[in-house]
Amino acid sequence: MSNVAIRDLKITLSGNTVIESLNLDVKAGEFVVLLGPSGCGKSTLLHSIAGLIDTSGGQIEIGGRDMTWADPKDRGIALVFQSYALYPTMDVEANMSFGLRISGTPKAEIARRVARASDMLQLGPLLKRKPANLSGGQRQRVAIGRAIVREADVMLFDEPLSNLDAKLRTELRRELKQLHKQLGATMIYVTHDQVEAMTLAQRMAVMKGGVVQQFDTPDNIYSRPANLFVATFLGSPGMNLFKGSLSAQGGQVMFRNEHLTLDVSAYPYAQAAVDGQACVLGVRPEDIDIGNRDGASSAATGTVTLIEAMGAHRVVWLDLQGTPVAGIVQDGLVVEGEQPMAFAIRSQRISLFDAASEQRL
């Protein structure tokens, strides 16, 4: 196992700075996910770790050694691409062993590694098939197996599941998680899919514009987002946002706007609350009490505009004088469209952000 340390990384492509002054520490044996929208620089960062893109500044260390200018073959990494990139004229076994054969690995060692990888990925019955005779999920397993046989200390994944349908993505996600437990290798995984990120990562780096906005565990990022971008990028439906201001008097802090009043005295402020400070209140849909069944005194009333049946729960959308509010209902509460419906905010898991800087208060 090897750690990966990135120091003050800068990458410029065609005169455009894609990444500047980026720092990231991935522990040995850790599963880290790089998450962000298209164009945020996550794949560029991954490819620079792999040595496929030259850096314009900074340093990349792998296993404590400076690999900034090392050739890809000398970095001790294995890379799985979004496209399977299999050789169509070779069978599964030959595809998986090709790199080892080229590097002169003894036949007995090749056989051992291929057998181990095919057993992990359930590819044994498919070893003599050509890629054309495999499903999309099976092809991606072969591509992952080709990386496993290298027995690299660091494995890099560039959106490997994005070409698969939803059911296959779910299955392979689970297999990748199990694979990490078996191999113990350091894994860095790029995706724009928040479900993949939340389920796979031990820690994840949320990126925007080539900058890491927050690097933490999935639970901490979801419950304590560092800024408004992170807060709204994660979650489906997204976090409810209410603009307002703080009223801090006599040890009590209240959030107020035209339609809502909420006691936020117990909120864990990074700095003391400032009276009159403009802010944004963020509330996850699961923390909206539709129907105000807890009897909160700070309830408000909106109009039901949409009900989305999601199987195990329903997402109820309310209109609060022009502000959309999403809440999750997991029981038999009767909710009808175009009807007024009271709701309250469960204040234990709220987030507050400064209106100007958009950073967490």
Q: Whole-Å distance between the termini? A: 38 Å
For the sheet with most strands, the description reads:
6 strands, mixed
In the CATH hierarchy, the architecture of the largest domain is: 3-Layer(aba) Sandwich
Radius of gyration: 25 Å
Strand arrangement, major sheet: 6-7-8-3-9-10
Order of helices and strands: EEEHEEEHHHEHEHEEHHEEEEEEEEEE
Helix fraction by DSSP (H/I, runs of at least 4): 10-25%
Going by CATH, what is the homologous superfamily of the largest domain?
Answer: P-loop containing nucleotide triphosphate hydrolases
Could you say which overall geometry the principal axes of the C-alpha atoms support?
elongated
CATH class of the largest domain: Alpha Beta
| Low-pLDDT windows of residues | none
The overall number of domains is 2
Beta-strand percentage range: 25-35%
Tally of separate helices: 8
Number of DSSP-assigned strands: 20
What is the typical, i.e. mean, pLDDT?
91
* SS-derived structural category: alpha+beta
- In the CATH scheme, what's the topology name of the largest domain? Rossmann fold
